[in-house]
Amino acid sequence: MLCESVALLPLLCLLLSPEEGLGAPVGGPGAEALGWTEVVRHRHLFAARSGLYLTISSKGRVRGSEGQSPDSLLEMTPVSSGCVALRGVTSELFLCLQQDATVYTSVWFSPECVFVEQLQEDGYSVYSSLRHGTLLTLTRPRDRGAPPHARFLPRVSSVEARPWLLPSDTPHPLPSDTPRPLRSDTPPVELDLLDAFKNLSPIIHSPSFHQR
């Protein structure tokens, strides 16, 4: 069902009324898996005022964490010019915003899941609901008027979206379809170091390797 929801996103973007401000996707390569035409960014949103990262748990709870984690890794996908959809990589849930600035998550994409991304002069970004105009914050709705609470810094990920990369004392059960890490009693695999270097060499010389 989730795959069907994601596959219908481009059609929904085209069918939304003009007053909701959402038009056809921006032209360009990339994001074929989602049906959009821009490159998907994977970032962690760091809140300037609170010093916390926005996280979406597997149960759909939106909170803040002091460090990056698989739950704070987000897919930032362009929907139209200047507008993005935010979805948790681990939870596969969309981040949405109601008219009263209440944050919630949903398996299904809707107009409340579209945010206007505005880059500030200091490098931080502000995300506001395209439908309601309310600001995305990590504070309670009554505090949403304070601009510092709505400033986020999209940071490059230093972790992977794998549960076993979390600290050992953090409970995080593996999904049934998630590959398990190798056990300690697994026999070692013999590697040909020369062949391994040949495979690694093109990656090191790739421009994208040095941009990480």
What features would you highlight for this structure?
6-stranded antiparallel beta barrel; globular; Trefoil (Acidic Fibroblast Growth Factor, subunit A); alpha+beta; two-stranded antiparallel sheet; 212 residues; 3 helices
Explain what the structure shows:
The protein is globular, with a radius of gyration of 19 Å. It is built from three helices and ten strands; from the N terminus they run ααββββββββββα. Strand 8 and strand 9 form a beta hairpin. With 212 residues, it is of the alpha+beta class. The protein is 12% helix and 25% strand. A six-stranded antiparallel barrel has the order 1-4-5-8-9-10. The longest helix has 12 residues, at 193-204. The protein has a domain at 39-165: Trefoil (Acidic Fibroblast Growth Factor, subunit A) (Trefoil), CATH 2.80.10.50.
Summarize the model shown.
The protein has about 210 residues and is of the alpha+beta class. The chain has a domain at about 40-165: Trefoil (Acidic Fibroblast Growth Factor, subunit A) (Trefoil), CATH 2.80.10.50. It is built from 3 helices and 10 strands.
Give me the secondary-structure topology:
Blueprint: H1 2-7, H2 9-15, E1 41-47, E2 53-56, E3 62-65, E4 73-80, E5 83-88, E6 94-97, E7 103-106, E8 114-119, E9 125-129, E10 151-156, H3 193-204
Antiparallel strand pairs: 1-4, 1-10, 2-3, 4-5, 5-8, 6-7, 8-9, 9-10
